[in-house]
Every structure is written in C-alpha cells, then in structure tokens.
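Job type: complex structure
Entries:
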Amino acid sequence: MDFAKDQSAGYLVNHVARLFEQGLKRRIRPLGLSPGTFPALLELWEHDGLTQKELVIRLDIEQPTMANTLARMERDGLVIRKKDDSDGRVQRIWLTDRARELQRPAVAAAMAENADAMASLADHERELFVALMRKIIKARSGSGSRR
Amino acid sequence: MDFAKDQSAGYLVNHVARLFEQGLKRRIRPLGLSPGTFPALLELWEHDGLTQKELVIRLDIEQPTMANTLARMERDGLVIRKKDDSDGRVQRIWLTDRARELQRPAVAAAMAENADAMASLADHERELFVALMRKIIKARSGSGSRR
DNA sequence: GACATTTGAATAGCCCGCTATGCAATAATA
DNA sequence: TATTATTGCATAGCGGGCTATTCAAATGTC
C-alpha cells in the first residue's frame, strides 16, 4: 500500500533520465547525433581504436546493445569497424573525421543540457546529486548482482 | 574538452535509471509484469477506470507510448479498454482481477528494489536524493519546453 | 594434432521510449 | 446545418536497452 510514486527513487530516476535524454536529443539532433551514441563517442574521443569489448566494459552496457549502437554509428559515418590484426575475433572501432569534428559541438551541447536541466539546483545541490548517483552506481555495478 | 562522464548528471542519471530498471525487471518477472506497466498500474490501482488521456497526463509520458503499453497490458490480461459511453473518442481503462491481485506483491517488489538500490546511502542521503530529483522534475516538466 | 573450451561479436526478438502522421468522434462556427 | 477545428486514440517507424542464442576465432588439454 501507500506506494507514493513521487517518493520512489526508481520512479523518479526514470523520469529524470527521460527528461535529460529528451533535452540532449533536441540539442544534438542538428549535429546528426542521437543520445545513444554519446557514451561511445566520449570514450573514442579519448582513446580511438578501442575494442568493442573494451567499450562494453567501460560503459557498463550489454554487448549486443553496443554492437547494435556501433552498427548504427557505422551506418551514419561516425566510425568504422576493423578486425584486429593479431586476433581475428576482436573488432577495433575507429572514429571517422566527421566524428572527430563533432567533439567540440557535441560536448558543448551535453554540457549545456546538463546545466539547463540542473538550473533549479544550487551549486552544492548539484555536487550532492552527482555524488549520490556515483555512490549508488559504485555500490551496485561494483559488487553487483553477478548472476 | 574535459567532459568527465562520471561528473555528468545526465550520464549518471541514465546509468542509475538502467540499474533500477534492471533490478525491478528481475523482481517482477515472476509476476508476469514488466517495468513499463508499473506506472500505469500504480495509477489504476488507485483510480480504476481512468482515461488513456488522464494516464498520459499523470505519468508525463507521450500518448503513443501509453497506447502501446496499454495494448501490451491488454494482451497480457492486465486491463481491458472500453469506449466511454458519453464520448466515443475516449478509452477507459479497467483493471482485470489478475491485475488487482498483483498489487501487493508488485508494490512489495518495487519497494524492495528501491531499498536495495539505495542501500549504500544513509537515510538522510536517500531523502536528499529523492528531494533533488523532485526539484529537477518540477522545474523541468512544470514550466517545461512546450514546443 | 584433434578435440573441447573459452572468448568476442553478431543476430533474433522483445520492451519501452520518442516523433510524425492518420482517423474518427465531438465541438465550434459561418 | 454544413463546414471547420479540435480532441483522443491508433499506427508506422525508429532509437536504444535487454536476454537468449549462434558463430567463428583463439586457447587449452589429452
């Protein structure tokens, strides 16, 4: 009984995530990007040529989800996938020029969206919010429910 | 530059939302429920016979998403949809016996998941977390970006 | 060296969110 | 009252998440 949805962390976090995603989507659409590509791009901008497996681990996302996202990214001319020379199983992911050029505007858009969505929070509240989420993630995916 | 993803609220909130959803999914699968039905069920358990439109407004979700979710729910024997007598456009949504019986175990599962996911937070941190998210939602969807 | 195991990626199929669009019923208006 | 506008819902199509399964390459083991 008495499950007040506006007091349920799970309910709220889903709502907030949707708001963030929608905002980001609007902002990066002009760049020809969609939100799902963002995490992969962030990693690749820092470390071009990562393996699909490495992306999966770094982003804590399931392998088929990553494979699917990368397929879309390749289709859209953001990356190319090449087999590793020394191991025929692994796919290495390389950014295209276009993707490299998008770094500045895309990061700017994401930062703007973050700022905007949290505009109603005071500075210390923002830091708190981020810190709390990191704590949850750490506890959860760190020693998480390995099946 | 220097967009640290572990400091980006948008990035983190997406991650946390995924963790919550996966946890809930595992917990309610035995009941034959999926996470997407939860918000609608919560409303209907309190107010059976709501309109699709009313659900859309209360849950801040797009109309086609709701229509789709309700179609799945009807398929799975959770609700039935009946045209309103006095207005042939509106669909009223009525719970089945099965859905009513699921209230207790489903709510228990959600509460357990919430508790579990936030187990690493102190009590006051949990309250803070919830309060911050409500603040964000209020500022955002309240006077939000009406196109 | 042959066979079994492990590992990385791809595919199939589903849930659930979105936008854009179409359609039928009602309400408003000339 | 005939036409137009509005309103509520459904459909099409896609992005992005998941699980389960398959496949090929590499590794281990006998």
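Summary: Residues 18, 21-22, 25, 51-53, 56, 63-64, 66-68, 71, 87-91 of chain A lie near DNA strand C (CB under 10 Å from a C1'). The first strand of chain A starts at residue 79 and ends at 83.
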